Target: SDR family NAD(P)-dependent oxidoreductase
Amino acid sequence: MTTTRTAVITGASSGIGAATARRLAAEGFRVILTARRADRIEALAAELTGAGHQAEAYALDVTDRAAVDAFAAGLDGCDVLFNNAGGALGADPVASADPADWRQMYEVNVLGVLHMTQALLPALAASPTDEGTVVVLSSTAGHGTYEGGAGYAAAKHGAHVLAETLRLELCGHPVRVVEIAPGMVKTDEFALTRFRGDESKAAKVYEGVAAPLTADDVADTVGWAVTRPPHVNVDLLIVRPRAQASNTKVHREG
Ligand code: NJP
Model:
């Protein structure tokens, strides 16, 4: 008899989260889709269910600790937690950045991961197939910085440190901790959110880059990491498009 594994995905309403939901559903996971926009995750859950997969939607703001605890209390098991909800706000230099943006980035990219991880760790440790896995979607901005990126990089460095520390603290327990750190990924909303809906500024991020990563490329790395045998811990996977050699060296055509 095979046991159906459950994956909880935060930020499943768009981009990398939605792509990973599709990927993990295809791998046979029951996927629990969470995000603030209920209509988006309900539509995706219906699409996946219609295709014969097991999928449920649960509207959740990861910065709301009480809501996260209520979600966890109603969950009947979790084998994989994909901490993907997050993003950047603004690209202002340190001298003029808005502290409110920094606070919001810390809330979602760091405290959101903390809330979800704390709430679901007991369920992950009790995984009947011994496959409890916490995945943290950080960024190459969690491993280096760039001009105008300090607020986002500080938050993603925080997510990276959380993952590193948790792996040390869980050594000897049946839960592995995986960090996926992508470079430039062309998704519909990431840059638009960063530039508060300014489409021309958002488009400039990817201008001339022949092939940025796609959400599916990142979903592929998550799908691979969480389907290794339970004793294999993929600590950190840094993935960039070929055209991006570092946070500040990008090949642009034209
Ligand atoms: O972006 P986007 P990506 N509570 O904006 C959700 C990182 N990353 O897929 O709540 C719960 O489509 C939001 O859903 P909603 C990036 O930092 C990206 O590209 O409905 N959910 C949405 O589904 C982020 O951690 C790139 O608005 C909250 C999702 O988060 C992850 O990859 C590069 C929430 C954001 O999806 C996915 O980004 C990189 C909250 N409080 C790292 N706030 C890149 N695209 O270039 C937001 O290195 N969400």
Notes: The beta strands are 6-10, 30-35, 55-59, 80-83, 132-137, 175-182, 236-239.
